[in-house]
Amino acid sequence: MPDQTSFTERSYQLHAEHLAHIDRQGRDPLERLTTLKNSIHDWRHERMYRLLDPLLLWKGRWLTIGDGIGTDAHWLLGQGADAVASDIGDALLKRAQKEGFIREYRRENAERIQLPDNAFDYALCKEAYHHFPRPFLAVYEMLRVARRAVVLIEPQDPLQQSALLLWLRNFLNRISPGALQRIWKNQYSFEEVGNYVYKISEREMEKAAMGIGLPALAFCGLNDYVKEDPELCRAPPKPAFWNKVKRHIAFKNLLCRLGLIPYRLLCCIIFKEKAPEEVVAALEAKGFRYVELPANPYAK
Predict the structure, then answer these.
(1) Are strands 146-155 and 265-271 parallel, antiparallel or unpaired?
(2) What does pTM read for this prediction?
(3) Are 108 and 144 in contact (CB under 8 A)?
(4) Smallest Cα–Cα separation from 200: which of 166, 168, 153?
(5) How large is the average pLDDT for residues 198-223?
(6) Burial status of residue 78 (CB atoms within 10 A of its CB: 0-12, 13-18, 19 or more)
(7) What is the CA radius of gyration of the chain?
(8) Residue 209 near residue 256, CB atoms below 8 Å
(9) Which of 4, 86, 227, 231 stands 20 to 30 A from 117 (CA)?
(10) How far apart are CA 45 and CA 126, in angstroms?
């Protein structure tokens, strides 16, 4: 049987090495903080960040997790929030701090955050959770160090959100185990840096919160345009291409509203304390579904 501890350490080592040597690929590793401003690529991420607006009304200190070059902390600082960036490797965070994009950073393993309980008000993990070899350990660590809430913005597991896909998977498994994988080529997705792509679902987050007696959750779906196209990095973008991107997202949004497909991304907020009424109202206005969870009657 493989040594799981060794595999986990190797996975984090691969990610740290990737961050340390990413500038060898011939492009500035801090380009999202510099040359990509005002591009469609920048606009895509801004759409994700704007999901945090309701929580910014409830002022507090943020810790960003898996924040490779500090883009998440940089955005929060730009909104007037206090934010500290962290990642498994700090090579690029050092440079981001030196060049004035972030104020503070920490080198942290998401599974073993070297901070006391409730050290920050919020923890944000944007498009990094799916890299972790043991992501639920990271969730519990984020919940430990965050006093109010943990925010995940990650790819959504379509099987857990689409009744049709779930039925198809179960039906095909009864006929021929593995048949779905022959049809759905990226059912088991891996990235070149060495990780399995761990997608999230509402149900998984709900169970995690219920298991430790947390009071509330909030969910919001988001579609994106994800293609390897140099036009995404052009600043300013060509109007025709930008219109194409917007049409693509609008069409996916229509299919989602009709219940035909799930959203590609899911923003999940796991609350450790109930949000104030004005924050809940702002979440709902933004398109979130705020869910208050029942208390365990046997563990009061």
Answers:
(1) antiparallel
(2) 0.88
(3) no
(4) 153
(5) 95
(6) exposed
(7) 20
(8) no
(9) 4
(10) 10
